[in-house]
Amino acid sequence: MKKFAVFGNPIVQSLSPTIHQMFAKQCGEQISYEKILAPEDGFTPAANTFLSQPGAVGCNVTMPFKQDAFALASVDDQAALDAKAVNTLMKRSDGTIAGFNTDGVGLVNDLLNHGVQLQGKRVLLIGAGGAARGVIAPLIASGIASLHLTNRTKAKAETVASETGGGKVKVVGIEDCDKVAPHIIINSTAASLSETLPFDMNATLFKECETAYDMVYRAEPTYFMQQALSLGALQVLDGLGMLVEQAAASFTIWTGYKPKTSAVIDVLRSQLK
Ligand code: ATR
């Protein structure tokens, strides 16, 4: 049986085993997929032990180990290089471990699934943490017209812009975001976890906004989504689809099989209620 796992600390909340078991069922594979709680300073030995088992194919990696996984892996994937973070590890036949970051592909695929046109669009990305870094390369590769990055701490946005996106990321101050007139606004900050907004948003920011996307998900629309809708966004989306799509991209890396995601998203959505 092929063996998979997700490493994190904490890990009890992870939906990854549920998602990957649904993918495996679709392709008639019997897999094991376990949650592994690694000590905060003990990711690398734990991952090496898991991956050295017979049958181990790969694993997912979540907070706070994505940087450790980047250090452990051999990485060619641009999104992972930009993020300096890896969420997917795969054992190669020569015993080395390849690392990928599928978060950004997950975001782009979720946007496309919702009929969002990316080609030629102005995108505003809010936040300059690991979540933002990981989505920059796939967003640029999707054919958008421009990518502006804004953050509460502007200096951090400037660092991210200089280290990612091949010079294509433009930093904009929070006070000037409305001048970008973005078609797509993506909130990658942790603000929604505390039911706050990343900054004081106004209707001018949303005058051309077709889609506002919050990477957080919960049973009800987040405060960011509610505000975006009332300020003029035509469509608001949460990050549940991104979660499933990033898992699907990992599953494809491991197995070559492209899972269908919409039924999986529906099951998880119904379980959030
Ligand atoms: P992650 O790796 O999940 O992206 P992170 O590296 O801690 O987490 O980054 C969190 C991001 O959310 C940062 O851009 C942070 O802004 P600062 O750089 O100014 O700290 C942003 N953030 C978190 N809480 C926020 C809040 N209440 N309002 C605005 N931005 C917030």
From TrEMBL:
Binding-site list for NADP(+): G127, A128, G129, G130, A131, N151, R152, T153, K154, A155, K156, M215, G239
Active-site residues annotated for this sequence: K66 (proton acceptor)
SUPFAM superfamilies: Aminoacid dehydrogenase-like, N-terminal domain (SSF53223), NAD(P)-binding Rossmann-fold domains (SSF51735)
GO biological process: amino acid biosynthetic process; aromatic amino acid family biosynthetic process; chorismate biosynthetic process; shikimate metabolic process
Uppermost EC category: oxidoreductase
Pathway participation: Metabolic intermediate biosynthesis; chorismate biosynthesis; chorismate from D-erythrose 4-phosphate and phosphoenolpyruvate: step 4/7
One GO MF term: shikimate 3-dehydrogenase (NADP+) activity
Reaction it catalyzes: shikimate + NADP(+) = 3-dehydroshikimate + NADPH + H(+)
EC number: 1.1.1.25
Superkingdom as given in the UniProt entry: Bacteria
Location of the Quinate/shikimate 5-dehydrogenase/glutamyl-tRNA reductase domain: 117-192
GO cellular component, one term: cytosol
Alphabetically ordered keywords of this record: Amino-acid biosynthesis, Aromatic amino acid biosynthesis, NADP, Oxidoreductase
InterPro entries linked: Aminoacid_DH-like_N_sf, NAD(P)-bd_dom_sf, SDH_C, Shikimate_DH, Shikimate_DH-bd_N, Shikimate_DH_fam, Shikm_DH/Glu-tRNA_Rdtase
Ranges for domain Shikimate dehydrogenase substrate binding N-terminal: 6-89
Residues of the SDH C-terminal domain: 239-269
Record-linked Pfam families: SDH_C, Shikimate_DH, Shikimate_dh_N
Residues bound to shikimate: S14, L15, S16, T62, N87, D103, Y217, Q246
Family: Belongs to the shikimate dehydrogenase family.
Role according to the record: Involved in the biosynthesis of the chorismate, which leads to the biosynthesis of aromatic amino acids. Catalyzes the reversible NADPH linked reduction of 3-dehydroshikimate (DHSA) to yield shikimate (SA).
Subunit structure: Homodimer.
Name the UniProt record assigns to this protein: Shikimate dehydrogenase (NADP(+))
Annotated source species: Alteromonas naphthalenivorans
Lineage summary: Bacteria, Pseudomonadati, Pseudomonadota, Gammaproteobacteria, Alteromonadales
